[in-house]
Amino acid sequence: MTTMDVRGSNGGLGPGRALRPRAKVLPEHARSHNRSLVLQTLYRAGRLSRADIARETGLTRVTVSDLVAELLSEGLVIELGQRESARPGKPAVLLDINRSAHQIVGVDLSDHDRFRGAVMDLDGELLHSAEVPLQDGDGRAATGEEALAKVVELVRHLVDSATAPILGIGVGSPGVVDLTGTILTAPNLGWTGVPLQHDLHLLTGLPVVVANDANAAVLAEHSYGGATGDMMLIRVGHGIGAGLIIAGALVYGSHFAAGEIGQVMVGTDLGLDATYSRDQVLEHWLSVPQLQRGIREAEGAGADTTPLLREAGSRLGIALAPIVGALNLSELVLSGPTDLLDGPLSEATIHTLRSRTMAENHADLTVRMTTQGQDIVLRGAAVLVLSGQLGVS
What we know:
Elements: H1 27-45, H2 50-57, H3 61-73, E1 77-82, E2 93-97, E3 103-108, E4 114-120, E5 126-133, H4 144-161, E6 166-173, E7 176-177, E8 183-186, E9 191-194, H5 196-204, E10 208-212, H6 213-224, E11 231-236, E12 240-246, E13 249-250, H7 283-286, H8 288-300, H9 306-327, E14 331-335, H10 338-341, H11 344-356, E15 366-369, H12 376-390
Parallel strand pairs: 3-6, 6-10, 11-14, 14-15
Antiparallel strand pairs: 1-2, 3-4, 4-5, 7-8, 8-9, 11-12, 12-13
Helix pairs in contact: 1-3, 2-3, 6-12, 9-11
C-alpha cells in the first residue's frame, strides 16, 4: 500500500469549512477538493460505479476515473466486483471506501472520573475499548502532569491494540482548544497551554487531531446521528460545553471558545448589578459532580430529587434562550448521563426556553438526548481524523 500524504492535522476542520464537500471548486484547489468529494460520496453511499460517482458529484467521468485510479493505488478505495445488470454491455464495477484498510484511535478526556479510549473502524464502530481512572484510592483526581501521564498511558495502549494501520488519533478534551490542538485552558484538569496534539504526534509518529470535547460530540451527532440543519449540542460532564454547527460548518469563535457556556452567569440571585461569581454560573447547577452531590444530599435527607433536576434544567434554559433567539436554532441535543438529563431536567429546559423566546419563531424547537450514548466523544474523535485525513465526515 502506498503511504498516504499526511496533511495538516486540522486541515479538514478550519473555521467556516463545510463538513461535507458537495460541489466543484476553482481549478487551483480542484484536485484536493474533488478527491475529497469522491471519497465523501463513497463514504456515505458506498457500492457505486465510476459513472454513479460522476452523476452524484457533477465531475466528468475522466476526472472520476483518474481520481479513482489514484485512490485504488493508495488502498483507500476497493473494487467490489461487477454490478448485476439486465442491460446489454459490460456491467459496471462497483467501488467502496476500503473500510477495513485503516483503524482510528479515539480518546475522550471529558469524564470527571476517568479517561476513555477506543480503537474504531472507519464507520466509527468500537473494536476495542480501554480506560484509565483519574482518581486514586483516596478519591483525589489527577491533574496537571499526572493527568497528562495518564493520557500517554492510554494512547500507547490503544496504538498497541490496533490490528490495522492507524489513520490517525483523535482526542476530545474539555476546555478551550485552538486549531493547533493546543489546550489553552482546561481548569478541571489543571492544564494551561498544553500542546497535546504536538506531543502525541511526537510520541506516536501518527497524525493527531485534538479538539474540544463538545465540538467532537457535535461532529459525531452530525455524522452518525442523522442530525440535519443548524444544531447545538450541550455536553454535560465534569464541566459544561457546547458544540455548534451552523450552515454546515463547525463554529469556533474568535478565541476558540464558542460554546463555553458553563461559566456563563445564569443567576441573578445576587441582584442585577452583581459581578461575575462562580456560585452563579451554569456549572454550579448543572455539572455532573454538582448534580450527583445534590442528589446524594437530597436522598440522604429523604427528599424528592425532582426539584433539584428541574432547577438545573431551568438554569440551562436561561443560558440557552439568548442563543436560540439569536441563531433561530430548531434543535438542541443533550449529551451526558441519561439518568440525570432525560426527564425533569430536559422538560424544565424546554419549558424555560418556550417561556423566554417568541413562540412563533421557535414553535418547532426540540430538545432531545443524543442518539450516540456515552461513546459520542469517541465517535466524534473518529470524525476529526476522517475529516482531517480524508476530507469526509
